Amino acid sequence: MIPQDLLYTKSHEWVKVLENSVLTGITFFAQEQLGDITFVELPEVGRILEQGEEMGVVESVKAASEIYAPVSGEVVEVNLDLETAPELINHDPYGKGWITKIKTTEPVTGLLSPDQYSQLVDS
Amino acid sequence: MPYIPHTPEQQKQMLEIIGLGSMDDLFQDIPDHLKPRSFDLPPGKSEMEVTGFLRQLSSRNSTGLKSFLGAGFYDHYIPAAAPAMISRSEFYTAYTPYQAEASQGSLQALFEYQSAMCRLFDMEYANASVYDGGTAIYEAMMMAVRHIKRRKIIISGDLSPIYQHMLKCYTKNLRLELKVIDHLQGLPMMENLMDVLDENCAALIVQNPNFFGNILDYTEIFAHCHKLGIVSIASVYPVMQSVLKTPGEMGADIAVAEGQSLGLPLNFGGPYLGVMTCARHLIRQMPGRIVGKTKDSEGRDGFVLTLQAREQHIRREKATSNICSNQSLCALQALAYICLMGPSGLQGVALKSMDLAHYAAKKLTDIDGVRLLNNSPFGNEFALTLPVSAYDLIGELVQKNFVPGFPLGRYYPGMDNCLLMACTEKISKQDIGILSELIRGIIEG
Amino acid sequence: MKTIFDRSINGRLSPYQLESLANPRDFLPGGLIRKTPPDLPRVGELDVVRHFTGLSKRNFGVDSNFYPLGSCTMKYNPKFMEQIASLNGFTDLHPLLPQLKGAGLYTQGALQVIYELEDLLCRITGMEAYTLQPMAGAHGELTGAMLMAAYHNKKKNKKTTLIVPDSAHGTNPSSAAIAGYDVLTIKSRDGIIDPTALKQVLDNSVAGIMMTCPNTLGLFESHLPEIVDLIHSVDGLLYYDGANLNAILGRMLPGEAGFDVVHLNLHKTFGTPHGSGGPGSGPVGVNKKLEPFLPISRVVRLDDGQFFLNYAYPDSIGYIAPFYGNFGVMLKAYAYILRLGREGLLRVSENAVLSANYLRKKLEQHLHIPYNRICMHEFVASAVEQAKKGVRAVDIAKALLDRGHYAPTVYFPLIVKECLMMEPTETESKETLDVFVDDLVDILMKVDRDPETIRKSPQNTPVSRLDEVLAARNMQLCM
């Protein structure tokens, strides 16, 4: 269930490390907890984020949850498809349901490995 | 005891099932020293006695006065069918419609109310009400602050001073800067407003008709706001809106109103109705309950409370607002009023009221020393400058069963001789004639 | 059911149309006039009456159904109160009248209602003074938090934080935040506030605590005296959320117990109807410490017995409402309190608590009750066991609708999973409670035998289960 090629946060975001940037989203576990997602508030392209800073919100009918920047950097792209089809996060959280692309200037640190995240979810 | 059905025998049975010996045992968790030292209240009375007493109190209020008092709260005629509709106890004894399937009546009515407000103001979305016109302005202002994340608010000084007081009270601890641009002779200072609008401003708040009854067009200044990312907020008079250029036509981002004029009694200040409407891009910031249309499991249309994830029971301290209870029943009565009047009925009320106000203005300005505060267009309310104190003039006329209006000096320093006078369709030309003769008598001696 | 817009027929005249209309251009330049008339329903009076009557039949209300919605106190709303609130001597009064020279005389009856209701509420809660301006419970909370801020500002106390226990009412944290405070949540232990947890977070930055007592689990906060001492030790203030006052009427006066500020819900405790969501009324009471900060205006009685509005309070927080609050609601509550009197109010709390415990006891064999001990006016059950079998609290709620009962509050408080919060109130008979128990037990039995039927409910309501996800995604909010 937990992809091995990604890194994770305690607040249930995932990170895919690319060259000089990362792709982010929320995990399968997070979307399952929220239920049917009805709205995603995305950050503006160009915004500079600090790791751990709030970068958006996902809403379902009965819950709303902040999305935190898993790394520091500049937002270079957001998944505009989510504006009309927020359910992509439910259907494909690690693929079509990605949320932001963040340009990083420093090596990515302070994230959980798939094993560590797996333990977190199990507990 | 009234309204408590348990018989002593039943109480005994119930206590037995609970496993307690006495009613007092039910309160065993309350420490003894917290039990009341006294509970000093009068003994109960029969329904007949209470009703008799309150009738007596109500008769100590005079309703026989011929009143030209408005100032944002208007005595329009209310068709009997409007209150009759909400006297259906299926509406008034229901709670907020959390269980949608058992609340379709309220939900559909609120959806229709939202629709009616959008159409009346030419706006895209509405909520199911907030407390009153003042809290609607405050909530609109907070929508702007959240949306654009700036902290300065520009207010035109001809916004109701009552609402200005409320805004001041609500923002005391919020590190917001409220800047009021003084009116000039009852009119907004458009150039001065334009000058202070900049990229630090979150919102501009104006009122139409303004507090002095003047009718304005804010199209240009709203367009200016738009360029600067400032949220434009208009507070309007719903009945007049059937005739006046709409906030939507002017390009307002948020239009709010005190909805009392839509078939709600004056009721000594409440319950009233805070109407809130907005443009599409601001809907996520909209506070309060919002009803949306959906389908049931068999594909039939139905209605639910929607966008609830923004609300306080879920978002706690991050909620868009703390409002929970609203004025739903008042919204239902306003909807019934609007439906009973229809578009032409509403326009009739607005135009008749305007007609009478213009007649009154003409009659009164015939009196020596009485003139209009300004020569700009007005609707059913206007401000007069008198050669005497408005406060004292009212004092004299009240004794003759006339309330000629509101003394503007009450809120605006230096305007002690100014009287704000409103007409509704309930006023007659004869009343206006008598009043103007009385005023002439007082002024001309 | 068709909407009223769908019933509109072009050309149908309103019975309230006025003849010989003036032309707006007689008064206004064309640029100030709307381009087309608003597209509102064109219907006759009977169309409107049929429509609203039809809608009303699609609603549950206290008059037609048992309504055990926890923390909402859905008691019977006596009819004579409605009649009183519709007396012309009250409804026709313009709120600015008493502010005019000489016209105060014409509003003496209304001002007396405000004055005397404030006095009665003081006696009921042990407070020194009240404002009736707040128009709902949450509005009262905000007022209360603002009063606390005004007190601390006056004393130049540097206070930034309000403590809100996790068992407090849902609106408390947002009310505190809107008043400008940081909110600190403390976890309860064994269902009530844990003084040790409180001590750990207590310092001089704490402005106060917002408590709901009994709390949303229906439990009395039995460490209250210790909490009062702790909060007062840092010059903090105690706020009493009166949403659950029904439980302790005449059994504890919040003012005597050490609370500094209190809000009440007239639409819960004092029998005024909820109106499909409002209007309510949320008066706020304070002790001597906070009295100077109350909103203006205030009604005072002069030596000659006349009532008048006083605005001369330099430390007042200002205008919370345009005028005096939801006067029409106050009238009903005033009538209710006069009708019941001292004995009546004592019997209210007694029987409300009796009925809640009876219901709890009757259900404890069938539903998990996490804090199963003597409760106050309500208790929280949990459908965790049923959820394991695929039937969630929401399904049970919907199945209750099918049997003609409104549902308990579900999924609140957040601290109990799959919760069902039940408040029967004192006005429901034992027979009604028994029928409810039988129906609920029947539903719970079906969880094993026929869970699908429960999951598919409701079926007997005007519509079946509504798609909330679709509503949120489509956002069709008007015609």
Give an account of the 3D structure:
- By secondary structure, chain A is an alpha+beta fold.
- Chain A has one domain (7-122): OB fold (Dihydrolipoamide Acetyltransferase, E2P), CATH 2.40.50.
- Helices cover 20% and strands 34% of the residues of chain A.
- Chain A has helices at 28-34, 81-84, 88-91, 114-122, and strands spanning 7-8, 13-17, 21-26, 37-41, 48-49, 54-60, 64-68, 73-78, 100-103.
- In chain A, the strands form two sheets. A six-stranded antiparallel β-sheet of chain A has the order 1-2-3-9-8-5. A three-stranded antiparallel β-sheet of chain A has the order 4-6-7, with no helix packed on it.
- The mean pLDDT of chain A is 94.
- The N and C termini of chain B lie far apart (63 Å).
- By secondary structure, chain B is of the alpha/beta class.
- Chain B is globular, with a radius of gyration of 25 Å.
- Chain B has helices at residues 8-18, 47-59, 81-86, 89-92, 104-121, 133-148, 161-171, 190-196, 219-228, 247-250, 312-315, 328-365, 390-398, 429-444, and strands spanning 66-67, 125-126, 152-156, 177-181, 201-208, 231-236, 254-258, 274-278, 291-295, 301-305, 371-372, 381-385, 402-403, 406-407, 418-422.
- Chain C folds into three domains: 1-58, no CATH class; 82-339, 3-Layer(aba) Sandwich (Aspartate Aminotransferase, domain 2); 348-470, Alpha-Beta Complex (Aspartate Aminotransferase, domain 1), CATH 3.90.1150.
- Chain C has 16 helices and 14 strands.
- Chain C has helices at 45-56, 79-85, 88-91, 108-125, 137-154, 172-178, 195-201, 224-233, 254-257, 266-269, 327-363, 384-388, 393-402, 430-449, 451-456, 468-474; strands spanning 129-131, 161-165, 182-186, 188-189, 192-193, 206-212, 237-242, 261-264, 284-286, 298-301, 307-310, 379-382, 409-410, 419-422.
- In chain C, strands 1-9-8-7-6-2-3 form a seven-stranded mixed β-sheet, sandwiched between helices. In chain C, strands 12-14-13 form a three-stranded antiparallel β-sheet, with helices on one face. In chain C, strands 4-5 form a two-stranded antiparallel sheet.
- In chain C, helix 8 links the parallel strand 6 and strand 7.
- In chain C, helix 4 packs parallel to helix 11 (327-363).
- The relative contact order of chain C is 0.13.
- The model of chain C has no long low-confidence stretch (mean pLDDT 96).
- Classes of the chains: A alpha+beta (123), B alpha/beta (445), C alpha/beta (479).
- Chains in contact: A-B, A-C, B-C.
- Chains B and C meet through helix 1, helix 2, helix 3, helix 4 and helix 5 of B and helix 1, helix 2, helix 3, helix 4 and helix 5 of C.
